[in-house]
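Closing statement on the NAP sub-project.
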Amino acid sequence: MTSTMNRQWRLAARPVGLPEPSVWQWTTEALPTAGAGEILVEVLYLSLDPAMRGWMNEGKSYVPPVALGAVMRALGIGRVIASGDPGFTVGDTVVGITGVQSHALLPAAEATKVDPALAPLPSFLGVLGMTGMTAYFGLLDVGQPKPGETVVVSGAAGAVGALVGQIAKLKGCRVIGIAGGADKCRYLTEQLGFDGAIDYKAEDVKKALRALAPKGVDIYFDNVGGDILDAVLSQLARHARVVICGAISQYNNTTAVKGPANYMSLLVNRARMEGFVVFDYAARYGEAVREIAGWLAAGKVTAKEDVVRGLEHFPEALLKLFKGENFGKLVLQVAG
Ligand code: NAP
């Protein structure tokens, strides 16, 4: 039965360091009505992303910060329960920026219809959603892998990292993953077919890389920044590409971001380091979804999801990303 109230998490204060539960405010309000050109969506799953930490900060970024008092921004998938737009009917499944709430009023132009028969709903937020697009375009467009090259990926057992490594294997590369803990490292080598894994919590990354990539690193797909970026920079091969996807080790800093001391390695190795934002590839998402869906269907890639149940658990669930407690794409099940 559909609730008559909308339950929401709003940003009550800007976090300093980790986004502790005290930065959130729980509110309930009457369900809005869908006007012309709008749809009312019952949210089923929310994507929890490291980027959400950045959206909570004041200041210039690739999207405006979430305003204090506003419902927290999040991507979600849900079911249309009322429609004021001829393009949508009740029962349609849609993906959009729903926010962290049980119901979302969306401009129809900002919602994308998906076919729920094609994949389990969380996949549309993960491997077939922003996560998949990030891995696909970041590796293939920015990294430009060639067969035989050595690819290193950090955050390797995470949502983006695990797919980057698997796509790099499909492209004929040698793949080394960097992740926290023995379980995650075993998953990379035993289940995903990575050629090597480094547990950054237990090993000296630089030393381990020297052993695993004696000829140097051709592509480094960086999800974490900080000390690990520096360690990999010191092991670059000539003409290496360093893909700056994220820097999760720096997102909760209360001091200045730690920049790469070893950047001169770019000069010595005629290498390049390039950042990217997945949204710039929106016009090409269809191409990536088709190819990734094909790989999934053929069993050539797999994707793991970590589902937390209950909108009320959002504050603790989000923290899992920054504590390395998620294993796979983190999604919050809101209903269904
Ligand atoms: P995820 O990797 O599934 O989850 C985050 C993981 O980061 C944690 O499980 C943890 O794994 C690791 N981590 C947390 N703190 C760390 C630290 N201090 N040092 C090293 N590792 C740490 O998350 P995701 O959604 O796939 O995102 C991965 C990265 O991609 C993030 O940096 C995100 O911001 C970025 N991203 C970028 C774009 C873009 O357009 N550029 C789009 C989407 C995502 P361990 O247990 O291994 O530590």
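The first strand starts at residue 5 and ends at 11. With this model delivered, the sub-project is considered complete and its resources will be redirected to Aim 3.
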